[in-house]
Structures are given as C-alpha cells and as structure tokens.
Amino acid sequence: MIRHRAAYIAFDRFPSSKGSGVHIAQMADELFTRFGGGLLAVIGGGGLPRYQREGDREIARFEAAIPNLIDRAEAFSAWVAGHLAPHLATLEICHVRDPWGALPAVTAPGRRHRVVFEVNGLPSIEMRHTWPHTAPSTLAKIRELERFCLDRSDAVIVPSNVIAAAVAGLGVPDRKITLVPNGAAPAPFPNGAAPAPRPPRPGGAPGRYLIYVGALQPWQGLDVLLRAFARLADLPDLRLVICSSVPERRARPLRRLAERLGVDGRIDWLFTLPHHEVAAWLANAEVSVAPLTGCARNLDQGCAPLKVLESMAAATPVVASDLPAVRELMTDGEHGRLVPADRPAALARAVRVLLEYPDEARAMGDRARKRIEDGLTWPHSRGRLAGVYRTIAPNQGGGSGVLAEAEGSDRDVPPPAPAADLAQGPVGHDAPGRLGAAHPEPGRA
Predict the structure, then answer these.
(1) Distance between CA 121 and CA 105 in Å, rounded?
(2) By C-alpha distance, which of 113, 121, 60 is closest to 443?
(3) What is the DSSP letter of 154?
(4) DSSP code of 407?
(5) Coil, helix or strand for 282?
(6) Which of 18, 319, 423, 426 is 20 to 30 Å from 340 at the Cα level?
C-alpha cells in the first residue's frame, strides 16, 4: 500500500457540479503535484465509487447514510482518523477544509505533519442559515471546535479578506492567515488580441438571456432575482437561464414562486450541468447575475463567489450585490454593476441599463476578463498556495517522506477536542446522498 506524504480532507462530495468541487480539484492537484501524490478523503454517494486510484493519487469516499448532520460529521472525523493512521509516519502536509476534517488531523497520535486549514466558511455561521433550528448551544460548541482546530493548525488560508477578518475574530494571529483567492480560467486571446471569441452557443440556448449559476440556498438571493426578472416583463424576448448546481428537487420552492410571479414560462432551468459546459452558457449570456442577500452569512464571514469570477472570465458583464466580499473581485461601473442587496427594483434597473447600452456592457465584460487574467486565475491561486506549503514544509520535494525535526515538529500530542458530543437533537435530515465505511478497507488508504 502507498504511504502518502500529503492528504487533502473535505467534508464535501467530490466531484460535484458545485463550486466546492472546482475548488477542491484545483487545490488538491497543487498539493499532490508538489508532494508526489496523496490521499483525497471526501464525501461519496450518488453512485460515486468508494475507492479510486490513479497512479500515486487515491480517493477514499465516506458513504455512511447518517441523517443527522452532526452525527454524520462526527462519524466522518472518525473515518478520517482511520484513513490517516497508516500514513502518519510519512505524512508531511494535511490540508483540511472544515473542522470535521481538521480535528483528526490536529489530534493525530504523535503528530509530525503540518496542517493547513482552508476556511471557505465557518459552520458556526453557515448553520444558522442552513439549519435555522439548530440549538444555540450546538452552535457554541461548534465555534469552540473551530477555535480548537484553528489554534492547532500551522497555517490558515482564506479566499477573501472578509473571511480573514472572521477568522482573526476567533483569535487566529494575522501571521498564520494567508489570502489565497479563488480563480477562474479565461479563454486565451487569439494571438494576444482582444476581444476573445465566444464559445459556440450551447444547443437549446435562447437567443437573448440573463444567467444565474450556482446553488439555490436562501442566501443566494434567487427570490430577489425572480422578483427583479418580473420587472422586465416588457422585454418578451429576454429569458432567464438558471444553471443550478444542485438537483431539481431543491428548486421546488423557487419554481412555485416563479409561477406566482408569472415568470415561470420565461425561465430555463438546467440542473447539475457539468462544470466544463457552464462556460459556454456564461459566455453567450447578455448579463450574469449574482444577487447575494445581505444576511449575516454573506456579511459576517463573507464569501468568494466563483459565479462572479467565472462570469468575468467569460467576458460577461456581472450585476451583483454590493457586498464587501464582492467588491474584492469587481468594481462598479468597471467590470459590471453593483447594486444594493435584497432590492429587486435596483437589480432590474441595473440589468435594464446594461441591456440598453450593449457596447458599454461588452466593454465592461472585456475589462472584467482582463481583471481575471491579471491576478485571479487558478495558476495565481495555486502559486500562493504553493508558497504556504514552502513556508511550513521546507523539505517538500525531498525524498525522505518525513519532515525533519524542525520547529514545531516534535510537539506534544494535543489534548482531546472540547466538543466531543455536539448533537442537540436532529440536524440536517435532508442529507445529500448516501454517505460511508467507518474504517478503511484492508490495503486501501
């Protein structure tokens, strides 16, 4: 069996059509490229194999069907611990995305490896919106677990300055936090000339359409978008394409709202479209819309929406909510328009202006694409991540497979985590898919 030097742990299904799937693919590939392969431990289900191997890279998927979210997270932590155990003598870097994966990494017996904690969101904040009936005492314990894992990680990476501030608010010193923005992949200009040609129009695409790409949670603001679209009823040739990264059943409440608003006949729904097909839909849209709400989830911890970056990379002007995390990516009037969150009338007005001035809209799209090319591509992001690995694991690329006895490598085993029993009643009964084996298979990572 392979003894790995690197592991990437994520309490997310992979692969998937969601933005997290794109992000995991890029970050894990950078890690495994630098450390000669590795173990990817993720969520399975939905027909995905429990185990895959490609050369020096292995994917193990957790499949246990546990309806309660907290119970499932705790089972995932135990499963990860079992999968890390065979590699503890050789492991140099363990890259994690959440406290459930971080806990077994930072408390591993005789730990010698470094831990990079990638914070794209904090469950203690996310769950207030995803599962609003979660007990406050449960959220408090999760917050304590987040602090515990962040404190014992060697580096923390974040995709936006807003999330960096939220992490710093948990007591993480600035010296441990590194900004690694999300990226996108703009199509190359032919012979260096602009503008770039658009990909062919997808089959079945309307002649003229707005587009939304992403998930359908309440904080995404799809209800605001539908109400804004209803205000554009005087443009009968204009349609709205919603590329949903989640299954059709999640759209039922929004489809009922569309019927009540009288716009259901003007909307094209696409569900779990493969990521590589989304670029053509974005590139041929008149405008891309990111109507994020002004809730605490988007303001207190921020976000780094791939939908904005990928729209900019496609040279499509964006109309987005004027939130701090979005302002890190685009400038109002330069790359698109920023409008007050939760304001359907303002959103509709901004879209209408771009439609009425197509030359200026195209110019915004071209400037947006240039903005991505100048510093928000995946190679830029991966370069920053590689810098973090070099800083905390200076022996990367060597043949020993074990970190030298450097500062912090001969540490005591951390004490048990403070949140062993988080569940305060059922949370998350609408669990996505079937989730896995509690222990690794014999001979498998």
Answers:
(1) 19
(2) 60
(3) S
(4) T
(5) helix
(6) 18
**Cβ(322)–Cβ(339) under 8 Å?**
yes
Among the listed residues 288, 227, 297, the one whose alpha carbon sits nearest the alpha carbon of residue 263 = 227
Name the amino acid, one letter, at 202: P
- Element spanning 373, H or E: helix 358-373
Whether pTM > 0.90 for this model: the answer is no
Residue 375 amino acid letter? G
d(CA 153, CA 115): 5
Query: Cβ–Cβ contacts within 10 Å for residue 52, how many?
Result: 12
Cβ atoms within 10 A of the Cβ of 405, count?
9
DSSP classification of residue 377: B
Give the sign of the dihedral formed by CA 157, CA 159, CA 160, CA 163.
Answer: negative
Contact indicator for 60, 85 with CB cutoff of 8 Å: no
The three-class DSSP label of residue 253 is helix
Please report where in the chains the tokens 């806990």 appear, as a residue: 103
Closest CA to 292 of 263, 264, 326: 326
| Nearest Cα to Cα of residue 101 among 114, 115, 86, 121 | 115
- Looking at the DSSP bridge assignments, the partners of residue 318 are 288, 336
**pLDDT tens across the length of the chain (445 residues):** 789 999 999 999 999 888 889 999 999 999 999 999 999 999 998 889 999 999 999 999 999 989 998 999 999 999 999 999 999 999 999 999 999 999 999 999 999 999 999 999 999 988 888 788 888 999 999 999 999 999 999 999 999 999 999 999 999 999 999 999 999 998 665 555 555 567 889 989 999 999 999 999 999 999 999 999 999 999 999 999 999 988 899 999 999 999 999 999 999 999 988 888 999 999 999 999 999 999 988 998 877 889 999 999 999 999 999 999 999 999 999 999 999 999 999 999 999 999 999 999 999 999 999 999 999 999 999 999 999 999 998 775 543 332 222 233 222 333 333 333 333 333 333 323 222 222 333 233 3
Centre a 10 Å sphere on the Cβ of residue 151 and count the other Cβ atoms it contains. Answer: 15
Instruction: Give CA torsion, residues 336, 339, 343, 348, to 10 deg.
Output: -30
